[in-house]
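Continuing from the previous page of notes. For each protein in this section, the sequence appears first, followed by its structure tokens. Read the first protein now.
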Amino acid sequence: MSSLRRSTRGSSRGASLRGAVARSEHRPFHYVDLHRTIAVVLLIVMAVLAALSVNGPWWTVSRVAVSTTTGQQVQNVIVSFNAGGSTSCSTYPTFWTPSPCTNISSTVTGPVGAFDVVVDVGLFVLLASSLGSAALLGIGIRGLSFGRSQFTLALVLALVSVVVALGLVGVGAAIGPGPQGATYCAYLSANQTSCPTFVGGVNAGLIPGACGGCASTVHWGGGTSFYLVLGGGAASLLAWVLLWRGRHGPFTKEEQAEWATKNRPYSLSDLPPPPVPGSASVAAGGLMAPLPVAPGRSAIPFSSERTTRWTCRRCQTVNSPWASRCGACGDHRPADR
């Protein structure tokens, strides 16, 4: 009776192990790089920010008046130089007499105006390059790859979005407000400043229609679109760095298949046949015979109970609990790990 029990247990144990490996063999073995997924998200963020920046305020100058008795804001005027070359002016309250927006032009002239037109074109380039890179990477992560050139093109497009975004921000800050912006600053500040730099602020004097018993200040600097593009450029830069660092990782199906041969568990061909009832292995307690060692593999029998990652002694890389060789240097797994 005892021998029969051992025979049954040994057979079921062998069948269970072979079944587990069989299921592993038929399951797609896919290389996963979390950094690439993060890069896709960052590039999509860049695309969204670029879309939100189109025709938006690129540089602004504002005059704010605060009551000296209540400490509350009572007057405000904002002039925006928009991406695309237009200007906009808003006031609070709207019954300023005369309105500070009366002499504000509806378009930006000169080099700054020409650059603002270029900004809008650049925003569409940002939108296309970041979305294109994210799409190429996204379908590659899903297993749809037409070759290594797909990853290379995604890397190039990500770099394009970085260069364009940071280039627009850098050139915009270097050009500054220009003569037209300087004129508005002088007017709103009562000739206290002409906005000599891209960003700044100053205490303002009294202008027609403004609050006489208020403390007034004029501030100028990048508008909403400027800072959206700056943030998007930083996101694209981080995405490109992540992609560049992982550029040697497998991407195509052929590369992933080659990587899988070094990192997946033992195959069915590595396992011995199931024990025959009444054989020596069953009589010895139902244990299977030692697994054969395939050429190029370390002498580690596959075990469905292995759940601990192991560290390679040669390069100190932490590997999968089921890997028989180091995924970084290919060294064999030590027998004691």
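Done with the first. The second protein uses the same format. Note its length before scrolling.
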Amino acid sequence: MSKGIQLHPTKGVNPHLTICPRCGKDGPDLVLMGIRDYYQTCPSCDTRSYGGFDRGTCPKCKAHVSGNKTPIGEHERIPGSLCKECEDVIKLHRELVEAGGVYWKCNDCHGEGVIKGTSEFAQHIRATVENGKYKDPVNGKYPAIGVAFDKKSCPVCSPKEVVDG
């Protein structure tokens, strides 16, 4: 059972609207921060926790985190749940990968997507994976196969060839 919210002396429950952590658009949540109107960043892995780390330990790398409390602005939006559009895109991407596609991401522009399973490139990538050993770390139901691009080969940020007409 929850202990409840410790009220902020001047802001009460201290409500904050959220943003989608994937796309940055308005999020669906309202977070009540109360007295914990700050965030901390893990010095080891840069994980950020709004309201601070429970027991002073980073859940990702288990490093000890103390101090370094950065205040949240009164009208600042904080990361919350995924927006409906991002949930739909992630679901579509998962379905495309389950159907033989391959995830892609760009290390430079941070673009991401799926290469459809009907492409020769996706089929080649899948053929090079060792007996489908790679499984999705979240649900283990489909191969989480992917490729990473840089600005030289990214479908979003690579220089496009100019064709004279």
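What the second structure shows: Residues 15-79 form one domain. The first strand starts at residue 15 and ends at 19. We return to this in next week's lecture.
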